[in-house]
Amino acid sequence: MIKSNRFFVYFLCTGLMTAYLPQCLADQYNDDTEIAAEADNIQNRPPCSYGQKINEKALRMVSNLDSSLLEIPKNIINTTNDSNIFYGITGGLAKGLLNTLGRVGVSFADFISLPIPTKPIAYPLYIWDDFDKDTQYNDAFRLDTCPPDDSVIASPEATPRQTVAVPPRQALDNRNYGEQTNRKLDTLFKKEMMK
Question: Residues near 72 by Cβ (< 8 Å), separated by ≥ 6?
Fold first, then answer.
């Protein structure tokens, strides 16, 4: 019994850290500073390198697993707001349980395909992104590609080609080639060993 309690306490603490730590760190910076503007620019940019995509996928996997139980109150609240309290509690509970299982399934699918950069399956990406919007599931295992870069790269200026003179090949004497090479290697070896 104690081991199972530790298991739930671990996931509860991990979920709370996942939910509140970024907000606590974000509150440390003033939005008027250049650092905050640069951080917003970096965070709003879609991940384009392989490492960034894999890191983003791993973060989605952990947050979906840890915060999947938040789908139950989210769906109860949303269904209650759309209809009445009785249907909100019963229908929202059922819908929340299904979406909880869906988020857990999505996190396991992300875990299995972690080395492959794929697009997210569940939208909104995180439960807290748009709390009023119902969770939707899109196509699975679609590769994530970088958006085309709109920046224009200037072409280099054309320089005249320079010709390089290549010396003619020397004729080798096949009879003495091995002996000459061995003598050169022996003198080089002795010279280096003397140091």
Answer: 92, 93, 96, 97, 100
Structure tokens at 17: 């850290």
The answer to whether residues 146 and 48 touch, using CB atoms and an 8 Å cutoff, is: yes
Q: In whole angstroms, what is the distance from residue 1 CA to residue 180 CA? A: 82
- If DSSP states are collapsed to H, E and C, what string results for 41-99? HHHHCCCCCHHHHHHHHHHHHHHHHHCHHHHHHHHHHHHHHHCCHHHHHHHHHHHHHHH
Nearest CA-CA partner of 127 in 49, 66, 86: 66
Q: What interhelical angle do 71-82 and 85-112 show, nearest 10?
A: 140
The CA-based diameter of the chain, rounded to the nearest angstrom, is 101
Q: For residues 96-109, give the mean pLDDT.
A: 91
pTM higher than 0.85: no
Within 13 Å and on the Cβ side, how many CA atoms surround 116? 12
d(CA 73, CA 64): 15
The 10s digit of each residue's pLDDT in 24-44 is 555 555 555 666 666 666 666
What residue spans define the domains of the chain? 1-37, 48-146
Mean pLDDT score, 151-161:
63
Q: How confident is the model at residue 49 (pLDDT cuts 50, 70, 90)?
A: confident
Is the pLDDT score of 113 beyond 70?
Answer: yes
